[in-house]
Structure formats: structure tokens, C-alpha cells
Amino acid sequence: MFRRRLRLSAVAGACLVVAASAATLGAPAEAAPADEPAVQVSIDQFGPTAPKPGQQVVIKGRVTNTSSVTFEEPQALACIDRTRLASTAALDAISAEQNIPMNDRDSCGNLTNDEQTFQPFDKPLAPKESVEFTLTVPWKEWRIDDHTGVYVIGVAFRGQPPNSSRIMAGRARTLMPVLGKEPLTRPVNTALVVPLRHRPTQLGGKNFANESLATSLAPTGPLGRLLALGKQHQVTWLVDPAMLDEVRQLAKGYVVVGENGQTTPGAGQAAAATWLQEFDASRTRGSQVVLLPYGDPDVAGLLDSGEPLKKLVAQARTKTERSGGELAPGFTNGLSLEGGAAAGRYLAAASGGFTGATAEDLNLVSSSSWSASTRPVLTSTPVYDVLTPEGPDQIVRTVIANSSLTNGGPDPETAESPLQVRQRFAAVTALIAAGGKGTASVVVAPPRGWDSDGRATAALAGSLSLPWIKATDVAGVVGANPRPLTTKAPAAAKTNGVLTETQLDSIRQLDDATTTMQNLLVDGNALPEVMTQALLRSTSSGWSGYPEEARHFTAIELGSANQQLGKVHLVNASVDRGLRKEIKVNLAGSKGTFPLTITNDTDWSVRVGIVVSSANRSDLKIKDLPTAVLAPGQKWTPRITASAEQNGLIRANAQVTNADGRPVGKPQELLIQASQYGSVGWILVGAACALLFGTSFVRIYRRVRTERRNTAAATTGGTTDSTTDTTLDPAHDRPEANGVPEAPDASLKEGVGSKDG
Known about the structure:
By secondary structure, the chain is of the alpha/beta class. 29% of the residues lie in helices and 26% in strands.
């Protein structure tokens, strides 16, 4: 790397080396080389916006020394590129000269013939010092002809750093449309779309995450400034209905929930009420209201994710269609896509297929979604039939906003300044007005995140008073162009969402809890509206750039949904230190039953089922149970029929389910003690029973026979067995044992376990 010395040759050499390095590394637009002393030049006022030949032009602005050196003999000079630009394509092709050292940029020639075209400053310009300038340029000093067209003009700063010659250390340019001798042949119907949207802040009911929405609604806030435009100009409001719901709650009263759970009273109630009144007044004056899908969802991200998130796009559109009744009849159901999200697969899927879809719905797409070579021509009409062969609808009627009208420039670092936006808008529309006959219509829609404070949009609204502009709304533009042209949908990358995968995972969890709750209710339409609203708000594109706020919002809403699901649960009388313990049941025999009780502590009737599954055994069999309807506060105690083939402890889980079989809440642990015989046990039991009953039968038979014989002997006086000549014992009907009489109670000692048995 070269060590800079403030000599002319060293300065030039170092500038070239660093500039080449900046080009290789992709340096920011208009960035000066690292060792080149530079100043910042800004143009704050320019008038008239579109001068006619002969009119002088006044340019005001400021120079700020952003370098570490002091400039001697500083001065500001007006400059011009005398190439007349006669088409919008020529405007888009203006070079930013970002890879050229500041001192070598020569596209804007300095004006020095008249003292009014340059301004020397009274003293050297020290580091961090700022000085204002005012330049008045007589028409003749531009040295251009009287033809209608657009020119690049600007202001350059020249000064002398230490040990160096004078250099150009800063420059700012803008566009100057000239209304020359060629007349503007047609007016330009212009619809300015003003977006009114904000990332979600309502956690539920009166609880809000922060004051950001309330602050924005104040007269000095972005939403306050934007709404004020409707008082002086005809505009089309592009509104997220979820934000309107939040503003209505702010106006009623709210609290802000801190990280520790403590709440503080909200401070924006009055500002919200005033904002709502002014918004209603603008609708009364006839301003068109276009309502976005509820929550302003990340359409591309949800569709790319597939089911179950894909369905939320249609739900958001249906929700808007149904909730728009508060604005009826002055609202239009709309869709706004830009960048890769405007690809055919998204446009086709999101533009239809939802309850309430009509041909009057507005599909608004930014022209920046197309590449420069494939962009539709918008000098006559913005209404197109966009071909979407990959979607359910092969053609989608679309209004294409001209992104060139909000590009600003030509210098990228000042492109979003209000003055640059105004001059670009004037230049583009003047060329359209001079470019043909018949009706010309344009739609201006600021892109998302383009105008953080609303000042640039205000500059656009002020430009609606230009003599060739006829202010209208989007409905008026569509009505003036009944025969749309046809174009292909823009190409896009594989994925085009703005939400992260972590955010999408959180949405999936919230969607699962919400769907489970809805299917739990006997009447699914009775699902609390706040749960549906919370789910759709969690999909908002407004979360882009606010990941921590998104995580906090979704976590709270998921906890709220799970709390409702937890109110339908198993009753467990065994509680230890506030925690539910396992439920213990005994299962005697190969089959048995045991009771479980489910209670409904919600405010709605629910349909529930119960599923018992083993956690450590595969031989537990549970008979399926039908579902049951429980009214609010009601309990249900079904008997669970179970069987197990082996003895022992079975760990199982009892899970309450909804009608679709989805688990409701957390499972309850069961300890089932199974006590029954196996097949070998049953054989032994059977053999023992046979032995017992067989022995008893033999003894009873013998006793009966003995008693009969004794009766006979008593009648005849005794008998002798002549065959064996053996004397019989008449008492026991058996031979005497070696002539020794048997004990009188000997027979009573025989039974199971004796040798006779």
C-alpha cells in the first residue's frame, strides 16, 4: 500500500491505486478512495422544478468537510452535462461513476463565466465544518438549446488540501426537466399509492409490546406525516387492516408490557384517536382505500414453505374481505408484491383461491420485479394481463407501479432524498407527457422500507400539482385502461421470503396450537377472533429486520394458545408441591377397566377423546373410545378397557385429543400394575382344581357306599365273604389291618395331599 504524501504526483498515483482496489472489492456507490480528501455536497433546494427556456435556476445546499484536512480557497460551482435525455430508458442509463476518483469525474462541466454560478467561501473549510451555498444560474449559462428534455445538472466543490493543488473533492447531481418548444402533448393520469402499515405491536387485548406504533401515529411520526398528505392531495391508501385494528385499540386505551411482565399505561391514546378521525375523514373525501391481506403477510415466504403455512395466505385474504365491512363500501381488497415475491407462482397463488375473491380485487406489482431487459413498457398504461402458467389462473389482471418514479438520483447515495425523488418524478412524467398522444397513466407506489420518515413520499405528493399531472386514484387508472396489454411474469430465485427459517418455525408452532384449538371446539367458528388475528400477525413482512420483536410476539401468543388448550385436561387428585404426579391404576386379570376423568374449564363446548399408549411395553392393548362433547365446566369419566399379557408395571401416557386426534395439552403419565396369570399358570390352576374336585368325589363316593353296606349289615346281623374267607370291617367296609381296629376318626384326616389323593 502507498503511504500518501500531499504532493500532486503522489496524490494522483495513490488515487488511481485505491480507486482500482475499490472497484475490485465492490466499493459502495460514489465512495471516494480511502486517502482522497473528500467533502459531502447536498442539494436541498432546486427551483423551478421544471424550468422553461429563459428562466434562471436557483440551487441551494450545504457542503460538509468529512475529511481530516483543511481545504484552502474552497468554493461551490454549478455544473451540467449537456447531453439531452429524451426517454425514460436514457434516465435509467445515467452512469453513477462510482469507480472513478472524484477529481477525475468530468460528466458535469463546471460553470464559471458568471459570478452567480459559483460561490467562493470566506474562510478555509476545516474538518467536520459545514457551510451553506446559494447559486443562481442564468438560463444562458447552461448553454443548452430550447428543446424539451431532461439534463443532469449539479454542484461541485473545489478546494486546496495541504501541500497539493486545487482538486474537486465533492459533487452532487440531480435531474432538471426542461419544458422546451416541443409541447407536452398529453396529461398523465397519476395515482399515488401511500402505504400505511407498521409491524405488529399488539400482544392481545389491551397489551402492547412497545410504543412504536403510537409514536408513528403522532403528527411528526411517519404514519402521521403520510396521513396528512390526504388533506391536500388525492391519494390511494394501501392499508394493513391488522394495523387499523391495533390503532382502534390504542384509541380505546392500552398498556405496554415490559420484559419483566410489568405493565405501564400507554401514552399514545390521544394520538391514535386523532389519527383514526383523520383517516375516516380522508375516506369521506373520497380517497380510495386498498386493504392488504390481514397482517401484511410474507406471501413468498409462506408459499415457499408449503403446508401448513401456505394456507395462511388465503386465510389472510379472506380475513381482509370479511373484516373490510367496517370500511364498506369504500375499500378494495388488494395484494401488493415486489421484488422476487412478484414471480408468477406467487402472484397466481395469492391473487385468487380465497373466499370472497372477485374480479375487482387489485393486484399491485412493482416494475422493479422485472429485469431491465424484460420490464413492461409503462409509458401509456400500467394495467397488464400477466401470464402465470404455473398457477391455477393462467392470467392475472395486474396493475404495475412504475419503480422509476421513485428511484431518485442520479447519485445513489442521495437517491432517497425528498428533492431527488421530486426531480426524478418530474423528469419521468414530463417525458411521458411529451412522448405521444392519447391517455397516459402511471401508478406510483413507494417500495417497502424506502421512506422511513415519510418525507420522500410527501415530495411525491407535492409533485401531483405539476401542470401535466392529473391526480387520480388506482381505480381511476384501471377504469381509464379497459384493454390491458399482456406480459410474462417476472423471473425469480428459488426462494424469496423475507422471514427467517427460525421465524417460520415459530409460526408453524403457533399455527399448530391454533388449529388444534379450533378443531377442539364443537363449533369451529367460535374460535376467539384474537387467536386468528395473532396467527396472521405473526406472518407479517413487517417483522423483517426485527427478529427479537418477532420472537417475543410469537412466544407470547403461543403461550396464550397453549394456556387455553391446557384448560381441557385430565383430572388428577395426586398433586405434589403444585405439580401433577402420575396416576396409578391396577389391572387385575387379562382384561380390566379403570376410570379417567377429563374436565373442560374453557368457555366453549368441546369435543374430546382420549388415547392411552404404553411407554415401555408393547403388550398393553387399549380399546378405542368414541369422542364426547363437554359443555363449559363439565366433566367426563370414561372407563378405559385395557389388557396385558404379562405381569408387571406398565408406564403409559394418557393424552386428551380433539375430534381430529390431535393432542390437546400435555400427556398425563400413568402407572399401570398388571396382575394376571400366564398360560402355564392357568394349566397349573386347572390341574390343581381337577385334583381337588377328583379327590373329593372319590371320598364322597366311598363314604356313601360304606354307609349303604353298614345299613345292610345291621339288618342281617353280619356277613362273611365266602370267596376270600376274609372278615370284613362292617364299620368301614374294608379289611381289618392285621386284626387291629382302625381309629374312629382316621378317614377325616385324608384329603388333598394324602397318598389316596
